[in-house]
Amino acid sequence: MKLDDFFRKNTKIAVAFSGGVDSSYLLYAAKAAGCDVRAYFIKSQFQPRTELNDAIRIASRLGVALTVDALNALDDPEVATNPPDRCYHCKKHIMKRLWELARADGYSVLCDGTNADDDESDRPGMRAQRELGVVSPLRDNGLNKAGIRGLSEQAGLPTHDKPSYACLATRIPAGTAITVRLLDKIERAEEMLSEMGFTDYRVRLMPPDGAKIQIPDSQLEMATARRAEILEALKPGFSDVLLDLTGR
Asked: Structure pTM?
């Protein structure tokens, strides 16, 4: 089934929207197909403000109504204690809330931006989506990340070259309890890397209080040259600051 066929059969859809490459293209394609489409963004402690800003900007550009709802992910102990399947519990919590919002607005089909490259064995949250009846049109139609980037560029979407993003909770190793303090510290560290000109970065917690920076190979030389600046920025928040030389 082609994506257009999906939209012909489902003319009124809600989209779980992140402002990333995949969900932005899904939103664009639904709008272009003439669907009655509304975007829903769940803001928890796991998304930095920049992701919400991107979502607002893209939805506005596409002329699609956007609902933003706040959720305290750490209210769920199966999320806050950070077990290996934390993503499953978190995604289940989020998708249940999205269904509530979508149904209240009269939508009976909820879609997300999962693509054909996404592997459920690496993404426990996909199981929660499947269990709750969330549809993944991009995946179901065989669209992978590279294909979606190409189609997004053709459509003139600014997200076509946006780096893939994973929530801040992924920076904290399983078994280490997630706290607002840790999330804020990691978010600020990544903001500082962005301000220095780095892209597609991760600042991963190395318990008890160290940080490991991951950046693309192409930026390792810049990181070495700006070593003192990076240390000055991150050292107040972390006991040790390490650079992963394998690159992202």
From this structure: 0.94
> Hey, which bits of the chain come out as E strands?
12-16, 36-43, 65-70, 110-111, 202-206, 210-214, 240-243
- Name the DSSP letter for residue 151: H
Q: Which two tokens stand for residue 38?
A: 């509304």
Q: Residue 1: pLDDT band by 50, 70, 90 thresholds?
A: low
In sequence order, the β-bridge partners of residue 38 are: 14, 65
Can you list the domains of the chain with their CATH numbers? Answer: 3-161 (3.40.50.620), 179-243 (3.30.70)
- Candidates 244, 123, 241; CA nearest to 185 is 241
Q: How far apart are alpha carbons 167 and 204 in whole angstroms?
A: 12
pLDDT one-digit tens code per residue, 163-208:
998 999 999 999 999 999 999 999 999 999 999 999 999 999 999 9
Is residue 95 a contact partner of residue 128, using CB atoms and an 8 Å limit?
A: yes
Where do we find the tokens 């879609």? Answer: 111
CA distance 129 to 110: 10
